Amino acid sequence: MTTSRLAPVATTPPLEPELAAALARALQQVNNVVLGKNPQVRLAFACFLAGGHLLIEDLPGVGKTTLAHALAATLDLSFQRVQFTSDLLPSDIIGVSVYERERAAFKFHPGPLFAQLVLADEINRATPKTQSALLEAMQEQQVTVDGITHGLPSPFFVVATQNPLDLAGTYPLPDSQLDRFMLRISLDYPDRDAERALLAAADRREVIGHLQPCLDNAQILAVRAAAAQVLASPALIDYVQALLAASRSHADIRVGLSPRAGLALLNAARACAVLAGRSYCVPEDVQQVFAGVAAHRLIPGSASNRTRDQLAAALLTQVAVRQAIA
Amino acid sequence: MKPMQPLTPAQFDLTAASICAAVLPHLWRLPWLFSTPILILLIGRWLQRRRGGARLPTWIKLPLILLFPVLIIFHYGNIFGREPGAALACAMLALKLVETESRRDARAAICFASFVLMSALLFANSLGFTLLLFAALTLLLAAMRELEPRAADASVQNRRATVTVDLRSGAIALAAAVPLAVCVFVFLPRLGSPLWGAPDDTSARTGLGDRMAPGSVQQLLIDDSPAFRVSFDGPLPPRAELYWRGPVLWYFDGTTWTRPGYLASNRGAADLQTATPTIAYDVSLEPTDRRWLLALDMPVAAPDNAVRGADMTLVSRTPVDRLLRYHAVSAPKYRLDATLDPQQRALALELPPGLDPQARALAQRWRSELRSDDVIIRAALDLFHKEFFYTLNAPLLGRDSVDDFLFDTRRGFCEHFASAFTFLMRAASIPARVVTGYQGGYFNAAGDYLVVRQSDAHAWSEVWLAGRGWVRVDPTAAVSPQRVQLGARAAAGARAPWYQADWLQLLRNRLDVVNRFWNDAIVQFNALRQQSLLTPFGIAKADYVDLMWTLIGASSVLLGLFAWWVLRAPRTAADPLDAAYARLRRKLDRAGAPSLATEGPLTLAARGEDHWPGNRALQRLFANYVGLRYAGALSSTQAVREFARAVAALRLRAHKP
To answer: Are residues B222 and B121 in the same domain?
Structure first.
């Protein structure tokens, strides 16, 4: 073996040791509840740490709700679940102002949206009007009722689910609205071992009830701040740009990735780097989040018979990490 | 008009250095009348500029410009020709530095400097000198690069680093020009004369003269430069037979032996009977500016373009003013002039009247006491053998030089012995003459040829005996047989000075092989050689037009290839980190771990750990690459260089899946 005199390049970790340990514990705890879904849990964490919102597109019963519950319990977030139906009105989620006689004034009664983690279940069942209200709130992190602006709690994290198969009587989110979700993941069936463990173990709800919070709000804000500080070197930005450019020039893609998508990609990659204990982004971070960030934003051409996920994967296998040495 | 771009100190210094480098190869042979003012100009200008001196006014520059042509006409008589031309070019180049203020000036100065530099090849074209010129040319190219405008941030602030980068790019530019140079060298139509053929230097070269005065050979004995090189068709003859015949001397005036001019062409047909076997060989004679050719005793025929005199002296029709190659055949067993021409006999018995009475008396005593010529010769050789010493430090001799030598000093070297012996023979009525030439030589086994140096110069005698013709007698061999066996210096027992230490001699003999190749392949490359080089490619007879078209075609192809290569090379490949990382990936690929361009460094690192578990050097490399490329540590060029070095040092065992 060669003896190398090469001095290691010094880098500083992004987090204080205790904070890093707490984050690792939180990740581990959620993984213990949602069995066999390491990559998805990681993406969910990355999405949360990057300040985005998560869309889970999957069949019922694969653990979407469990994931949301486990996240809320572990991260010590106030939790609200809204089951979206076709008769749900915007005020049902935002809240209403009610006239109070004794005070002779309207009083705002906040809706379920006023929680740190909102699980918007089966979002595609609600009418576009209600969907818009939710997405607007997600974007602005505030709601305005009767001319009065109410700030939503911080951190504010929306996990929306959508059933891709049962389309009768639904209002699928338009492409422009999908862009509001930083990441879209699907959980899929667990593998054989994980499913066996799931079947053999205690009820998930009971497990969640016993979960201890691992990070408090202040710590979460600190981790988010660290994620925002993560270095994206010129070489990495080159790579992100190359991916964006490829998505725009690909023959099978009608509409490529927007600058907002690029920003989401970079921020999600940054959060990923923090989860890996790095204060800088590497191409692997980008690759990890790319399908989650890009797939739901890509609009395939009419002649294409490839799915959005296949297109995202194709882009990754087509763009060199470093153009110069490709 | 563009505004003047002033020179930075680095640019000026490099320009000045280039000009010095161009002038230096001329300086050693320019008369002091020119070399001194040129040196003063160069140094003075450099100092003046260093002190931040102002631009020189015209009233100083103008007289300087006029001064040099006047000096040249004063010294050489005219301003044309090689010598005055070179002097003028050097002087004008030095003056150009005086007025160089802007980049445009400096560029013009350097272009002119390269011309001046190349003109030095008109005076000397040995291998070492040519290499020296290439080094100087690298400097010129480096200066040219320094003059290129470049982005302020891209330039390295460190002065030494800048010069290093410049020199490297200069060397690369020079190397890139090599294919084109080879192409031009091979295809450029030649005149009949060799490369760099030019009217030659009239200044004297060392070598055998047509006279032998005391001390004349001694001058040669301390000169180690090669006189000629010989490659034999057959085996090397024994050393004792290696008598290289040069001019034969007949006249003696008491101190100096000379040669009658008419003998050269007179009576070309000598009476020479030879016996087999003969020796055939090729001689490459270094330029002597004289007309003597050297051949082993006795040349059977004259080489091309030369005549053989009546005394077997080979004389070229033209002075040997450049390396000359000729083929010769000699017969070591011969009989020359069974009957002696009366005119020659008279010449071979002539003695200076009134000089050296003691020697005459001795010879006449021998003649009266001893019966035959053979015995007289034996007596003379015995005399030398018993009482004389061979030394290179011979004492000076007086008017009666032979008497002084025979009866007083009794020490000397070949020319003393040959002179005294021939005198004695003539005094004893035996026709005799002095032959000058070279004896021996060094056989260079590495190149399979014999190199004869000036220090191998020798002189011996020939006596004419009835029935046997001219017989070679080497009186020096009687005194010091080693002279013939070992060489002059060894025979003299002189302690070799440091510059002739054994290892140095060995090195020099090795180098001589290279020099010989240079002489044969490059300097002697003429129209004939060019033709023989092209014949195998089916070009039976190439005239100038064919050659010209070939040259244009071949150089266009070369230039096209070069342009394609330059334009094709991606600019970012110049990034040393990318280059080193690409090399690392190639190494992994060769060792059995191929990777895709779309795979990131951590992916490859994980694969490396899979294939070569525990290889910390490999993991360290990937960690460093990630650190340098993605963790913002790129500012340090030193770290990148170390990374590249570590990649170069990485050794991977082939991975077998």
So the answer is: no
Both B601 and B480 in one domain: the answer is no
Residues B133 and B234 grouped into a single domain: no
- A322 closest CB neighbour out of B578, B631, B650: B578
The pLDDT, as a whole number, for residue A292 is: 92
User: In this structure, what are the phi and psi dihedrals at residue B437, rounded to the nearest 5 degrees?
Assistant: 170, -145
CB of B639 closer than 8 Å to CB of B645: no
Domain count within chain B: 3
What are the tens digits of pLDDT across the range B254-277?
Answer: 888 888 765 544 554 567 888 878
Average pLDDT of chain B, as a whole number: 81
How many angstroms separate the CA atoms of B47 and B401, rounded? 59
For A211-239, what is each residue's pLDDT tens digit? 888 988 899 999 999 999 999 988 899 99
Question: Quick check: B19 pLDDT over 90?
Answer: yes
Domain region containing B101: 9-149
Q: How far is B561 from chain A (nearest CA, A)?
A: 23
| Residue B501 clears pLDDT 80, i.e. is over it | no
Q: What's the mean per-residue pLDDT of chain A?
A: 87
CA distance A117 to A153: 9
Domain endpoint, select from B149, B164, B179:
B149
| Average pLDDT for A198-210 | 80
Q: Does residue B591 lie within any of the structural domains? A: yes
Q: Are residues B404 and B274 in the same domain?
A: yes
Q: Which residues are CB-contacts of A295 (< 8 A; sequence separation ≥ 6)?
A: A184, A308, A309, A311, A312
Assess if residue B401 is contained within a domain: yes
Q: B137 pLDDT exceeds 80?
A: yes
**Under 8 Å between Cβ of A20 and A12:** no
> Rounded distance, CA B590 to CA A300, Å?
39
Cross-chain Cβ contact A287/B650 below 8 Å: no
pLDDT tens string B456-484: 888 899 999 888 889 999 888 877 776 66
**ipTM, interface predicted TM-score of the complex:** 0.87
Residue B215 has pLDDT above 90, yes or no: no
Separation between Cα atoms, residue B581 and residue A287, nearest integer Å: 20
Active-site hit among B414, B456, B512, B611: B414
Interchain pair B601, A5: CB under 8 A: no
How far apart (Å, rounded) are the C-alpha atoms in residues A311 and A122?
25
Which among B29, B36, B41 has a CA at the least distance from the CA of B65? B41
Contact indicator for A62, A68 with CB cutoff of 8 Å: no
CA angle A145-A147-A149, nearest 5°?
A: 65
Do B229 and B337 belong together in one domain?
Answer: yes
**Domain stop point among B485, B502, B519:** B502
pLDDT tens for B590-629 read: 888 888 888 899 999 999 898 888 888 889 899 888 888 8
Provide the shortest C-alpha distance from residue B634 to chain A (in Å): 10
Q: Please answer yes or no on whether B649 and A4 come within 8 Å at the CB atom.
A: yes
- For chain A, the helix, strand and coil percentages under 3-state DSSP, each to the nearest 5: 45, 15, 40
Instruction: Decide if B160 is inside a domain.
Output: no
Please name each of the domains of chain A with its CATH number: 12-222 (3.40.50.300), 230-326 (1.10.8.80)
Number of A–B residue contacts, CB under 8 Å: 104
Q: Answer yes or no: is pLDDT of A93 > 50.
A: yes
Q: What is the pLDDT of residues A66-89, one digit of tens each?
A: 899 899 999 999 999 999 988 999
The predicted model gives B203-226 an average pLDDT of 66
Residues B220 and B367 placed together within one structural domain of the fold: yes
- Nearest C-alpha of chain B: how many angstroms from A66? 32
Residues B575 and B494 in one domain: no
Does some domain include residue B432? yes
Q: Is the same domain home to B113 and B223?
A: no
The residues, ordered by sequence, that sit 6+ positions from A69 with a Cβ below 8 Å of its Cβ are A79, A119, A205, A208
B599–A324 CB contact, under 8 Å: no
